Amino acid sequence: MYKIVKARQLAEKIYLMDVEAPRVAKACEPGEFVIVKMDEAGERIPLTICDYDRGTGIVTIVFQIAGASTQKMAALRTGDSFRDFAGPLGRPSEFVHEDLEALKKKRMLFVAGGVGAAPVYPQVKWLRTHGIDADVVAGAKTKDMLILEEEMKAVAGNLYITTDDGSYVQKGMVTDVVKDLVENQGRHYDICVAIGPMIMMKFVCLLTKKLNIPTIVSMNPIMVDGTGMCGACRLTVGEEVKFACVDGPEFDGHKVNFDEAMKRQQMYRTEEGRAVLKLNEGDTHHGGCGHCH
Amino acid sequence: MLKKVPVREQDPKTRAANFHEVCLGYNKEEAMKEASRCLDCKNAKCIKGCPVAIDIPGFVRQVKEGNFHEAAKVIAESSALPAVCGRVCPQESQCEGQCIRRIKGESVSIGKLERFVADWFRENGVVPDKPEHTNGKKVAVIGSGPAGLTCAGDLAKKGYEVTIFEALHEPGGVLIYGIPEFRLPKENVVKPEIENVKKLGVKIETNVIIGKSVTIDQLLEEDGFDAVFIGSGAGLPMFMGIPGENANGVFSANEYLTRSNLMKAFRDDYDTPIAAGKKVAVVGGGNVAMDAARTALRLGADVHIVYRRSEAELPARAEEVHHAKEEGIIFDLLTNPTEILTDGNGWVKGMRCIRMELGEPDSSGRRRPVPVKGSEFVIDADTVIMSLGTSPNPLISGTTKGLEVNRKKCIVAEEVNGKTSKRGVYAGGDAVTGAATVILAMEAGRAGARGIDEYLTKTGTP
Questions:
Q1: CB pair distance less than 8 Å for A224 and B259
Q2: pLDDT tens digits for B402-411?
Q3: b vs e for A195-218, b when ≥16 Cβ sit within 10 Å of the residue's Cβ?
Q4: pLDDT of res. A282
Q5: Which of A290, B389, B399, B448 has the fewest Cβ atoms surrounding its Cβ within 10 A?
Q6: pTM of the model
Q7: ipTM score of the complex?
Q8: Beta strands B23-25 and B8-9, pairing class
Q9: Residue A184: pLDDT above 90?
């Protein structure tokens, strides 16, 4: 069992949990992910690591309610436990193993969309720890949905916030901000890391391709085991089929086939929708889900 | 006497709609009667057909006399997982394939007798003893499938302190995630086998991915392990590389079976979804293909098995093919997919195939299938399950210094003792051979235990 030492809600449907997982905390690096399973009947859910403390053995995860399983998970409180917490999985962000002096010469831009701020945070924090200031563009639908603002401010070089509805700082998409920084404010970036909803990553990549900025994205497809065994997470990257769990989750965003990835992400939408239905209706649930008789 | 005592099975129509075990096994009387068919050959060929050389006439003789406990002891000398092997071994190409009774009639039903003895032994509460003293030497076993469980059990009996590291949340490896409930019951057969290994003092730590959570070098250098056995199993599923293969509704057999077996998606009280499909095409002809097909059938689908060679070349156990047919699975033999067709939303709507004919034998000795020109046609399907085998997982070989792999990226290990190119590291099972059988993995686990014991006895460390 993996104890939750702190659970708190960050925004509507977005939750943060600090979990005791010493093996993961000791071994993990920015860019990697874990698979959690809340109880015997639960799904295996892949979540990118948001923070870690090797000393205390604590790993921080952030998740957004997306289906029945994450909805149940959101009800967990401080003192509760996850049945399973496996990791770290995937490959670390490329820069972790780059030559530090070469890295220091690069200007890096991070683009975080919604809950994507969670996996961006440990990368920016790692860079700050190693003496590198990276700029961050953080976007949210509305002010209340913006997460980890203070934390990000503490580790980023410049932090540019934007909201879709203009309820906080400025109105606009993350792509508007990136475009403005490069085209109007004369910023130069050697590399961009974009993490967020697939549709956001797709549009950031379309833009950075035009702006000629190499871009890394972190893919979050459907997974089961997370160790390469099932192939559910396969993606087309360039001409090749890759498994996000062992080849990624980070890929060259200019080569990822986002349209295919987005279609694949819908695969269980009906099944997941059905599970939510069953959960909400409880004992009163009879028919309509396609599963009951 | 020419025919086997028939084994009781669930009726095909009934079982096609449930996940209970298909074969019900012999009772005492049936087992003793079947055992009496054994000719007790002096030069018993069946033993040579058994990968672990069980003294088959020896245990069958005890069954004939009703001495089931003695029979179990004879099997235990050679096999660690008899309840499993009695159910999943390809007996027709091993022990039973060599039985002298086959010259005129049917072989002795050795597999069913082994299963009977193992089940009797378990049900009668005979538990293995934990050794009184450990020898203070620590061994790490990677993977809790048939290779790992056998290796761990053998070493624990010899007094070693053994910890098994399992990447998934449940121990058992392929016995849990791969082979379905209707062929190998989890609660009644697999879990007790795992419990028995634990009773020997073996610790099992789940959710540890060796190569990621901790490396083999760390286990040896930092965590105080004196030796390591790698039984990490098969690996990454292969796909055909044909157009449409990433469409929604195309799964690897690994994914489909893992969802159903490990995650119990077939049960309403578990949360993991499975796209059951109404019209399912399974590509491949091995045991895994049969398992996937019969799982889909039980989830309510019409199922076709699409295989590019003919029936004679089907690599699956004869019993599985027979059961699959009885249950209503349709075999499209000498047929090969060329493209998966999708609807506007990216979902599978059919599979284009081409007829094949058998040409000259290839390197495997089997006649090579070649396409028949102009014979393309479309199979109506909403789900396609690819069951084409696996390629090795690089997680361990890529993170262990000095561990040699071969051209196919399988770990190189000596067959007799599991010794690898790295000192103190032994390996066996699918990680070494590529996809094979439970019994061969078990034998490799046993060989690895022998190798580790010799190594740690000789070196005298720590």
A1: yes
A2: 999 999 899 9
A3: bbbbebbbbbbebbeebebebbbb
A4: 52
A5: A290
A6: 0.91
A7: 0.89
A8: antiparallel
A9: yes
Report, as an integer, the average pLDDT of B379-387: 96
Report CB contact under 8 Å: A37, B169.
Answer: yes
Which tokens is B329 given? 């699975």
Residues in chain A with CB shorter than 8 Å from the CB of B236 are: 228-229, 231, 243, 246
Which residues, including other chains, have CB under 8 Å from residue A50's CB and lie 6 or more apart?
A16, A60, A61, A62, A118, A119, A121, A122, A148
> Smallest CA–CA separation between B251 and chain A, in Å?
7
Q: How far apart (Å, rounded) are the C-alpha atoms in residues A3 and A80?
A: 6
Sheet strands (E) in B315-361: 330-332, 335-342, 348-361
Q: HSE on the CB side for A22, CA within 13 Å?
A: 3
Q: Residue B212: which of A27, A224, A274 has the nearest Cβ?
A: A27
Helices and strands, number each (H, E), in chain A = 10, 15
Strand partners, B228: B140, B425
- Across the range B61-88, mean pLDDT stands at 92
Number of Cβ within 10 Å of residue B220's Cβ equals 19
Mutate to test the interface with A, among B170, B187, B209, B242 (most CBs of A within 10 A): B209
Across the interface, whether the CB atoms of B236 and A231 are under 8 A apart is answered: yes
Asked if B27 is an interface residue toward chain A (Cβ–Cβ < 8 A), one would say no
Taking the CA of residue A226 and the nearest CA in chain B, the distance in Å comes to: 9
Taking residue B404's Cβ as centre, other Cβ atoms within 10 Å add up to 12
pLDDT in tens, A73-94: 999 999 999 999 999 999 999 9
Residue at token pair 């690069």: A106
Q: What is the distance between the alpha carbons of residues A119 and A31, in angstroms, rounded to a whole number?
A: 7
For B410-428, write each residue's pLDDT tens digit. 999 999 999 999 999 999 9
Inter-chain CB proximity A88 and B212 less than 8 Å: yes
CB contact under 8 A, A241 and B209: no
Checking if the pLDDT of B128 tops 80, the result is no
B169, B187, B205: which to substitute to probe chain A, counting the most A Cβ within 10 Å?
B169
pLDDT tens for A212-241 read: 999 999 998 889 999 999 999 999 999 999
Q: In sequence order, what are the residues at sequence separation of 6 or more whose Cβ sits closer than 8 angstroms to the Cβ of residue A287? A: none
Alpha-carbon distance A62 to A83, whole Å? 17
- For residue range B213-236, what is the model confidence (pLDDT) as tens digits? 999 999 999 999 999 999 999 889
Whether chain A has a CB inside 8 Å of the CB on B169: the answer is yes
Contact criterion met (CB < 8 Å) for B258 and A224 = yes
- Min Cα–Cα distance to chain B from A146, Å: 30
Contact B234 A260 (CB under 8 A): no
Encoding tokens for residue B205?
């730590």
Q: Is the pLDDT of residue A292 over 60?
A: no
CA gap B49, B186 in Å, rounded: 28
